[in-house]
Amino acid sequence: xxxxxxxxxxxxxxxxxxxxxxxxxxxxxxxxxxxxxxxxxxxxxxxxxxxxxxxxxxxxxxxxxxxxxxxxxxxxxxxxxxxxxxxxxxxxxxxxxxxxxxxxxxxxxxxxxxxxxxxxxxxxxxxxxxxxxxxxxxxxxxxxxxxxxxxxxxxxxxxxxxxxxxxxxxxxxxxxxxxxxxxxxxxxxxxxxxxxxxxxxxxxxxxxxxxxxxxxxxxxxxxxxxxxxxxxxxxxxxxxxxxxxxxxxxxxxxxxxxxxxxxxxxxxxxxxxxxxxxxxxxxxxxxxxxxxxxxxxxxxxxxxxxxxxxxxxxxxxxxxxxxxxxxxxxxxxxxxxxxxxxxxxxxxxxxxxxxxxxxxxxxxxxxxxxxxxxxxxxxxxxxxxxxxxxxxxxxxxxxxxxxx
Length: 404
Known about the structure:
Blueprint: E1 13-14, E2 44-48, E3 51-58, E4 70-74, E5 85-90, E6 96-100, E7 105-109, E8 115-119, E9 134-138, E10 141-146, E11 151-156, E12 161-166, E13 176-181, E14 187-191, E15 197-198, E16 202-213, E17 221-236, E18 239-244, E19 251-256, E20 259-264, E21 267-274, E22 279-286, H1 294-308, H2 314-322, E23 333-336, E24 342-345, E25 354-360, E26 366-373, E27 377-381, E28 385-391, E29 397-403
Parallel strand pairs: 1-15, 3-22
Antiparallel strand pairs: 2-3, 4-29, 5-6, 6-7, 7-8, 9-10, 10-11, 11-12, 13-14, 14-16, 16-17, 17-18, 19-20, 20-21, 21-22, 23-24, 24-25, 25-26, 27-28, 28-29
Helix pairs in contact: 1-2
């Protein structure tokens, strides 16, 4: 866990908290049970009104079978260069689509990890991208959303271009991020990180709307306002600096075909939504003891200050020494698999070399857990495979596919 470098840009500052007059709604829980904490230690699954609820209980006391995955493919072993790979999804036939965002393309990998095809390139023509913002699986292939052009490109599973259409939130301060699309064309989306700076020293979280486009030519409906990434802001000599908060919170939003999993890492309280906004599943749990110890905090500060080198800017030092949270997030992230299988990445503590991932099967039962390197980023999961992104000391990327 490291603190993101500050964005020291002379951008217009934002005078006050975004949507300060609006009430935040977390769609993962009903208003009637918003204050109830899941404290039981035995996994419980219930079905009511078309919604399956999974109560994990206390994660520290949860017993999960340890699963050992097997490596089956690696882009590095295949000699495939990656440039800021941001997303991936499994395709029918065993292949993997990878958003190679730095090269403005999507790589289609065969089941053995070899490169089958490059899709797209930089440009504004059909099937081209100025930015690869979001990758969405569909029954017939996949969609690529380009926030720069406000356009969705549709491809078959083999990478053939089908059509494109415009889609935009008309927001000037954040990019639209489509998550899921129904067979009738409804689309679930959020907004990405806000391009806003503050005019004062403060800590606050972004707010992102959960949107449903029922018609691509009409304005979207807002289902809820979600607390998103947590930032610290410092102002020095008229310049606003922004840093990701140490041990900060963030929104969780991950889609697969016609549904997406939504949540907030401040509490393990997840919901699965259909593309039309309806909730079909909830997963809750109690993260247990989350206090950041004095030794952990000091070790983190020392590591961050060492990265700054000699004579660092004062706002950077202040952000490290003075601005941090006192507790870890409840969990790290979550991904959605087929048939509403869910992977939950638990929060690792400072200095931990591994992170535990819990696998909740479609029936709500716990399949088991997988230990992965703490810095590994899981990009995609299905019933028997998962794809992980790793970076070496030179920041060279490698995507590895495992079976389990």
